[in-house]
Specification:
By secondary structure, this protein is an alpha+beta fold. The chain has 21 helices and 27 strands. The longest helix has 28 residues. It is globular.
């Protein structure tokens, strides 16, 4: 009897499919076999684009004369030894005489299509292919998907877009990296990794870092008063901040002191009480980017941490739909599932009230939920319609991400939150105006799903010169108010904040343009940098090549990263908008509105122009090694070299003092070395170290001298002095494998 070969993306998915297909299944090496189906898997990218030296041995040496390298036809190679073993299993099954057809059951999206296309081509199979398209891993969803398999030809444009993305990354990254590395060998340690997606992302970070470095704080003052409305009983207290017109900032301390003196103990007059109603709509359903943004803001999760949890909730717990989506809508055929899903999650006490509200609606508000035109590969991330959601089996990360998605799903069907906003002006000494803001929640609406009232971000309130919202007593225009106390407060202007994972994903989604409006962001998302499925991997890539580091939630550009962007200048490779335009064209290839041939021709031209430009601009560039000042021992200058910071030079070997760059999986930056030389220790913990178990941790550092008189950098924490293991500080339980995406091919520059 002829059998169908089903190729999944990973073993866990293969096992899930076997529970739905006719059994029983017997387990073999890398395969599950049943009476009608054979199931095997890819374990991610088994096959990748070949390195240049696979085309010609001369490319093993990096020479400017050989660039650009643009293969007429790309070669494929098996990724590594582990992949070779599984690839032999896949090919063996494809070559079986009793296999009559193949089902591509890799992830339903551009990258899943590429994984299958590459292994199918490498195996040289000619068997007919059908596509399994899954949005959910529940038993019902899998069974329904197998009854409506799609012809491979229907997904041809998706495969073309996937191949175009992969080959474009190879061409741009390989050629730009080689050109820059050849010209900067004397200035940089190792390869100067450049790429179609990673370089504009680095440019966004570096330009913000430069703004921070160039920023010069300016002092200013504000004056705050506490008022007691008269008559004194009942007590009605409120706060106000001095404003000159619309400006609360006072440029000179003397002027602020004069205002305080004039208002001390005075009686003011409430000259304005203005009330208006405002309405706050529920946010849209989650796509992956908005979920990563919220998890970063609320919990400090890195982008890959959120993706890992969402992937587990999809694959293992079957509680959420497919996470690597860029849509924030569902399709009209899903409307009948809305109330059953609300009832399912409503069985949990924390969602019971919100679930009852949704199931009790006669008419569901679907205007901002259902939009067939805005759902391509996958719909928004929502809870699945399963028999139950195994919350007790979820770890803390999984529960938090699950909670975000469930509450967002329930909230979107709730009405607007309604607020009463009050603005009060109190005039003291006939000319000094103090403004007060009040906000009262009249109708909780969707905010009730989160248990929120007037929620204010503490950090935002602190930074707000206008003053924070208050719960105000009843105040009427024309009433008098006693100044109970008044004081000035010295402040200074602050630089822009560094990007976190969440805010960087925001910027990548809109190609570097700052867009707060949710609807406008939706309109721009097809022109962003990367895709929801790959942005976390791009951030990790920048960390891996040493262009950025983490400092708590902040992403800090290293001197190496800054130099790369400085040297590239205004080159198009640093342009987020150009990369966004390319992403938009890839999306149009998927829909058949653009052609693969035209896109790849433009990429080849760009690579040629890039090589020429880098050759010309970087030919005579020399970046001087950092001078960190005098050695604490011999007073000779300490200079950066490839492996560390020391007072050694060709002319004078110095005293032997050295701070090695490499420590516990991290390179110590010039800033850290300077602080160690100046003070002997770091004031704050340094992030980014890796334990032997591969876990990230942070620690203060100290310069210490051994009994032999050598200087060493040691961890300066109680656990280190006691000889214990470092505590996990930054990462991440249950980290899942990263998507290959823009990193496919494992070339250093393919991202």
């Amino acid at each position: 009897m002829a059998k169908t070969l089903v190729i999944a993306e990973k073993p866990s998915v293969g096992r899930d499919l076997s529970r739905v297909l006719p059994g029983p299944f017997t387990k073999g090496e890398g395969v599950l076999e049943g009476p009608e189906h054979i199931i095997t898997w890819a374990v991610g990218h088994l096959v990748q684009l070949a390195d240049p030296d696979e085309y010609d041995a001369k490319y093993a040496k990096w020479r400017m004369a050989d660039l650009p390298i643009v293969p007429r036809k790309f070669k494929l190679v098996v990724r590594d030894e582990r992949s070779r073993k599984q690839m032999s299993v896949v090919k063996r099954e494809l070559d079986r005489d009793d296999v009559s057809g193949v089902v591509n059951a890799c992830d339903a999206g551009r990258e899943g299509e590429l994984i299958f296309a590459y292994l199918y081509e490498k195996a040289a199979s000619k068997l007919p292919v059908q596509r399994l398209w899954l949005n959910s891993m529940t038993t019902t969803a899998i069974r329904e998907a197998f009854t409506s398999l799609r012809p491979a030809a229907e997904l041809a444009t998706l495969e073309q877009a996937a191949r175009s993305r992969s080959e474009a990354d190879w061409i741009v990254g390989m050629n730009a990296t080689r050109a820059a590395t050849i010209r900067l060998r004397s200035s940089f340690d190792g390869a100067v990794s450049l790429g179609r997606v990673q370089t504009p992302t680095l440019a966004i970070l570096a330009r913000r870092e430069q703004e921070i470095r160039d920023f010069r704080p300016e002092p200013y003052w504000v004056v705050d008063a506490r008022f007691l409305a008269l008559p004194a009983e009942p007590r009605r207290a409120y706060d106000g901040r001095y404003h000159a017109g619309a400006n609360p900032r006072i440029a000179e301390e003397r002027q602020a002191q004069e205002i305080v003196a004039a208002c001390q103990g005075a009686v003011g007059l409430i000259t304005k009480v203005e009330k208006r109603e405002s309405r706050d709509r529920a946010p849209l359903l989650y796509d992956l980017s908005s979920l990563q943004r919220d998890a970063s803001s609320r919990y400090g999760f890195y982008a890959r941490r959120t993706l890992a949890a969402a992937q587990r909730l999809y694959e293992e717990h079957k509680a959420l739909t497919y996470p690597r989506t860029n849509s924030r809508y569902i399709t009209s055929d899903m409307v009948p599932d809305i109330k059953p899903i609300a009832a399912l999650v409503g069985e949990q006490p924390q969602y019971a009230a919100a679930g009852r509200y949704v199931t009790g609606l006669d008419v569901l508000p679907l205007g901002r939920v259902v939009n067939n035109e805005k759902v391509t590969d996958h719909h928004a991330i929502i809870p699945t319609l399963a028999e139950r959601h195994p919350v007790e089996k979820m770890d803390d990360d999984d529960r938090r991400i699950y909670d975000l998605v469930v509450r967002r799903f329930l909230a979107v069907f709730h009405p607007e939150a309604v607020f009463e906003n009050t603005r009060v002006e109190t005039t003291v000494a006939e000319r000094h105006v103090f403004r007060t803001r009040g906000r009262l929640l009249l109708v909780p609406g969707w905010r009730g799903v989160y248990g929120e009232g007037v929620s204010a971000d503490a950090a935002s309130a602190e930074d707000d010169d206008e003053g924070s919202d208050q719960q105000l007593p009843k105040l009427d225009q024309g009433e008098r108010a006693q100044v109970h106390r008044v004081a000035l407060q010295a402040k200074e202007t602050k630089p822009p904040r560094r990007f976190s994972d969440g805010s960087l994903i925001d910027a990548m989604e809109t190609a570097g343009r700052l867009v707060d409006d949710e609807e406008l962001r939706e309109a721009m998302k097809d022109s962003g940098i990367g895709t929801p499925a790959t942005r976390a991997a791009i951030i990790e890539r920048l960390l891996q090549v040493g262009y950025i580091e983490r400092d708590g939630r902040a992403l800090v550009v290293t001197e190496k990263g800054m130099n790369v962007i400085r040297l590239l200048g205004e080159h198009a490779l640093t342009s987020p908008s150009l990369t966004g335009e390319w992403e938009h064209r890839l999306a149009k290839i998927e829909t058949g509105e653009d052609t693969r041939a035209a896109f790849m021709a433009d990429i080849a031209s760009f690579a040629k122009e890039t090589v020429t430009r880098l050759d010309e601009t970087l030919k005579d560039v020399r970046i001087p090694r950092a001078n960190l000042g005098p050695c604490p021992v011999c007073r000779q200058d300490i200079v950066e070299n490839r492996k560390g910071y020391s007072c050694w030079s060709r002319e004078d070997p110095g005293c032997g003092f050295v701070i090695w760059k490499a420590k516990a999986g991290k390179n110590l930056t010039t800033q850290i070395a300077r602080e160690l030389i100046r003070t002997g220790r770091t004031e704050r913990p340094v992030t980014g170290f890796k334990s032997r178990a591969g876990k990230s941790f942070r620690s203060r550092l100290a310069l210490m001298q051994t009994d032999e008189g050598r200087w060493r950098v040691e961890f300066d924490e109680p656990w280190a002095r006691e000889g214990a293991k470092p505590p996990e500080a930054e990462e991440l339980p249950g980290s899942a494998a990263e998507p290959a995406a823009e990193l496919a091919g494992a070339q250093p520059a393919a991202a």
